[in-house]
Amino acid sequence: MVMATLLFLIGFAALAWWLWPRGLQVPAASVRIAVVQRGVLRDDVAARATAQPLHSVVLDVVENGRAEEVMVRDGALVRQGELLFRLSNPQRLLEMLAREAEHAQQISNLLNLRLAGETSRADSARRSADLAFAVAQAEKQFARSSALAKQGFVSGAALEEVADQLARQRHALASEDAAGRSEATARRDAIGQIAQAVSRLEDGLKLVNAGVDALAVRAPVAGRLADFKLQVGETVRSGQRLGRIDDIAQFCLAAQLDEYYLRRLATGRPGIAVIDGRTQRVAVSRIYPQVSDGKFTVELTLLDGQPVTLSPGQSVDVLITLDAARTSLFLPNDSFSNDTGGAWVFVLEADGVQAKRRAVRIGRRSSTQIEILAGLAVGEQVIVSSYAPYATAQHLHLTH
User: Fold this and answer.
1) Helix, strand, coil % over all residues of the chain, rounded to 5
2) What order do you get walking across the sheet with 24-27 strand by strand?
3) Edge-to-edge, what's the strand order for the sheet holding 77-78?
4) Among 38, 62, 106, 292, which residue is least crowded by beta carbons within 10 Å?
5) CB 49 within 8 A of CB 37
């Protein structure tokens, strides 16, 4: 009797152990289950892109000032050279007036020096002419005295005095010519220095005038004004950005992708975009590798021309091809891959109730599929929802 009772208890305990749920209990309704399939794995990534101008010119303030007039509003279409707003800067105007006065004074000095130089040159030329005439007269007198001295009509002392007079006149002429050349050189140097000073003042005046002209800001290119919020009376500083002008003739698409695709993406990769229900070919034209919040930005060029209905800020669905399609095992790209990095999964056993943790190796990943390289077979069922609530468990028991 005792033996029978003991056997009954052992059998009951074994049955209870067999029927008792094993592993972490998880409501079946809270998980998503997918079947491992073999098929064509499309290696592409879907994203939501935004239309933006291909070319933009920023509006930065060159001069400090106060907004006196604002002629345009944000979103307006502007022509190249059109006046956008006007600033006032009294200090810049005073500086321009001071530079203009200094410039005028230097020009006056230059003119006075040139006028004095011309007067001095004329006086020197007149003195040189008088001295040259005196030399000629002395030479004639010396020639006559020499002829008379040979005939004995002029004494040697008188001839010597005439020769001294000739030498004196020649020396005076040479001194006057040397003084004139020296004065002309000095005058030329002075005029050159003042001319250089005037040139520097003109360059400085051009800069000041450019600063004054910059107070009237005009559109550098034609396009649509964006992010422009300047108000009359607002004070702005040099270098402050007031907006930009977008080229509305050419657009591109900008999309943010998960950093996982950064190493797999390259410029020139093809794709498609759906714009107003029509498919357009696109290609990756630029990749910005800076990662922010786990995402990076790519720029796509429209290959089939710009649709007329496309406008800045419009959202567009795009599909970028990363590599050629091929046949492989795959699972849906779901939350589990983010929790495990694709290193392991929970695989359901034949009873559909128990799930066991198993290591796997994944390959390529698209926006909808994950390639399975090892660890799973066709037809196996895998939990693909988030593993965050039970990431440390080894077994799961699905409850109904």
Assistant:
1) 40, 35, 30
2) 24-27, 395-399, 354-359, 344-348, 381-383, 33-35
3) 56-60, 241-246, 223-226, 77-78
4) 292
5) no
